[in-house]
Task: structure prediction
Amino acid sequence: MASITINDVAERAGVSIKTVSRVLNGEPNVAEVTREKVQAAVAELNYRPNLSARSLAGSRSYLLALLFNNPSPDYVSSLQLGAIRECRKFGYHLLIDWLEPQSKNLEDEVSATIRSVRTDGYILSPPISDNEVVLSAIEKSGTPYIRIAPYRDMDRGPYINIDDAGAAFDLTTQLLDLGHREIAFIKGHPDHGATHLRYGGYSAALRAKGVPLSQDLVKQGDFSARSGIDCAEELLDRRVRPTAIFASNDEMALGVMLVANRLGIHVPDELSVCGFDDMPVAKLVWPQLTTVRQPTAEMSALAAELLISRSPERGGHLLDFQIVTRGSTGPAPRRS
Amino acid sequence: MASITINDVAERAGVSIKTVSRVLNGEPNVAEVTREKVQAAVAELNYRPNLSARSLAGSRSYLLALLFNNPSPDYVSSLQLGAIRECRKFGYHLLIDWLEPQSKNLEDEVSATIRSVRTDGYILSPPISDNEVVLSAIEKSGTPYIRIAPYRDMDRGPYINIDDAGAAFDLTTQLLDLGHREIAFIKGHPDHGATHLRYGGYSAALRAKGVPLSQDLVKQGDFSARSGIDCAEELLDRRVRPTAIFASNDEMALGVMLVANRLGIHVPDELSVCGFDDMPVAKLVWPQLTTVRQPTAEMSALAAELLISRSPERGGHLLDFQIVTRGSTGPAPRRS
DNA sequence: TTGTAAGCGTTATCAA
DNA sequence: TTGATAACGCTTACAA
Result:
């Protein structure tokens, strides 16, 4: 049970522990022969350095933390996988925590965590990316962090996002080009930056084509399928229906599809529907959803990579999105 | 930036660091006055013990790890939340890792992780719960572990599950009582214990009522909605259809509902559908799914609690399930 | 290029 | 009931 330590390796290789440490950390100024001897000893003993000891003695903990509070398991899960994959590449491990923004002692919880477990960095996913309490607690600790898809204070620190507004603009324009004029929009949760950016893109596209924006066609959802259902019911259960509904994420679009189905409204002949995110659910519904693919896992992987390489420079990393046209959108029906 | 250590607390309280340590760990033999003095100092300085130091010096790391490889983000996410909640109660933190069972160097990956980051315990979720390589690697390290919903070697160590077979038996019986005789079954991924147990319950129920089990009505899925769609197509796209389909999880049941929808088959009048798990998706489809509710988050919370309290005794903890009857099941249609 | 010695912030040992 | 003092397994100065 007694585990193998750096001393065992040093002894076996016939060098000092400092030299073993050098090899382990890829430091320069080690003779090639010595390096090989040490590596051989490490391999023979199947030695793994103890994380706690490393963390206590040195300046890195080989731990990253992902903070989230997001109603979409698909989205979070995708972020987790991207981060885990990247962590593994570099011998890092991922710690996760669910934060409750409306918790009264959020500040305490966060700062207690920060000071007891010193991770090498935090990945903040929306809506935590814009949470002032969390941000300032982390900043106070001096720990590096990266925000995924933030909305405010863009020059506050490093972040990763896609051009949410541009994507919504493009998709809306595509609907307009198909002849749609009554395009409804279902907004996401107000705490998420994407909500505002996507809505901005939608309204800009209408404006660009000179189509008036009617508040009757804009509904407030919260990114959950449930809210998509509720909003769709309001939008579709009336005399004059929109010819298209742009739900600002796929889960809400699923809700729309379910309602359309139930009401016997044919998609896309009578109603075009599109979503955002290209989550697995987009390919399950029939017809499959026209949506925007964003590289979720790549975003968190990049975040992890930046934190691990210790080069998270202030400023943004903009990744590419892609409009994915599937069967749920089509030409606007002619009004009788 | 220099963080507050146990020395600062000791100085402020006018005691030795050992005494502070005693108070921190709730050890006996500390005078009440002393205890209060120390607690006051801790509060004033807002001191938090350093995890790495604790882990290095002592026998606990205040870290738990959840291992998974599961196609259902809903399920995994629910397990994570249960574990996180419980961890927070006791000042623990949760580390997660995605394992690839078919990876050639799985053994290495697991044992490397185990020996570099010494967690106080592992929570194994299906299908990892039955992975021999992972199990023996953990056992070799002497780290406690708890299996969620395992299938084999039940007396190998502690585990937590529900009576999957019993639940499937009850639900199948309910369908039989509604008059169904042609009840199709969609199996889950073969690596998951639940797959075999649920199928066992289904067939036992048929046997109990003297209804012959037809292999034509049993399809092999993998717990993904996609596979539910594929199996449903095979089952429904034929002259003589089953009158009910029991999908062994909700995601596959969603697939079935989508296909039925597409084919214009009315649920539940022409076809009864039921699922298993009572995931959020069960309430999204229309009609809502009849399913089995299992306390996923409670299962992982219990696992965490047992590991933290260091009392994971060999043997099982059986939690209650509940049949949830909703609109997707009804009396069998009369054959013309 | 290599090694010695001093921490890092806790818990464990053992004596007072 | 308390407190010196020695680990724990590493990294970081600083020498050699």
About this structure: The first helix of chain A runs from residue 6 to 13.
